[in-house]
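Thread: "does anyone have the structure for this chain?"

Original post by V.I.:
We have the sequence but no experimental structure in hand. Need at least a predicted one for the grant figures.
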Amino acid sequence: RGDRSIDVVLATHPDADHIGGLPLVLERYHVGLFLTSQVLTDTATFAGLYKVLQEKHIPSYYVRRGMTLTLDPHSPIPAMFSILFPDRDTTNWETNSASVVGRLQLGERSALFTGDSPSPIEHYLATIDPKGIDVDILKLGHHGSKYSSSTEFLKATSPVLALISAGVGNRYGHPNQETLDRLKSLSIPWVSTQDHGQVTLTTDGNTWTEKDEK
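Reply from O.Q.:
Generated one for you, C-alpha cells below.
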C-alpha cells in the first residue's frame, strides 16, 4: 500500500491472459521499464497496451537471449534476471512459442520463468543451454498444460519445487493431469495458485522460504 511504482514489467508474450490487465497497471503505476517478446498480434488488447506505453513514454524493449537485467546493484545478494529465449526475431511466430524465458538468479538460488513455452522450445533450450535451465524453482509453462513441462525438460531443470499459475475452474482444465503425473513420476513437489492463491517465495540467497498467504 502506498507503493505506486514498478521498476520492470515483463510481458512474456501478447496473449490476452498474459497482458489483459497490464494497461491498467501501466496507467496506475509509474513503470520504469517495459520488456516483451518481439512477436506481434492484431488484438485490441495488444493495441491498447501499446497505446498506454506510448502515451506514458515508458521505455520499452524487445528482449533477446544474452540480455541481463541487474535488479539491485547495491544488494548484498546478487540479483539478476537473464533472458534465455527468444534468441532470434519472432515477429511472425505463434505467440506461445515466442514466449520470453528468463532465469532469475538470487545469490546461490535460481528460478526459471517460461511463459507459455511449448515442449519444442523446451527441447531447444535443453539442447543449447542445459546448465542455464538447471534451477531450484520452475514456473511450469502454459499453466501446467500437457503441451509443456515435458519429461526431458523437467529432468533438465531438476527443480526442487514447481509453480503452477492456473485459475480455479478454468475452462482449459489446467493443470493437466498428464503434467501432474510427470511431476509425480520425477518426485517434484508442486504448488498451484489454483489451490493456494498467491504464492510468495523469499530467499536470503542460500535457502528458500514459502509464505503461506492463507
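V.I.: this helps a lot. The helical segments are 16-19, 22-28, 44-55, 119-128, 151-157, 177-185, 193-196.
O.Q.: and The longest strand covers residues 5-11.
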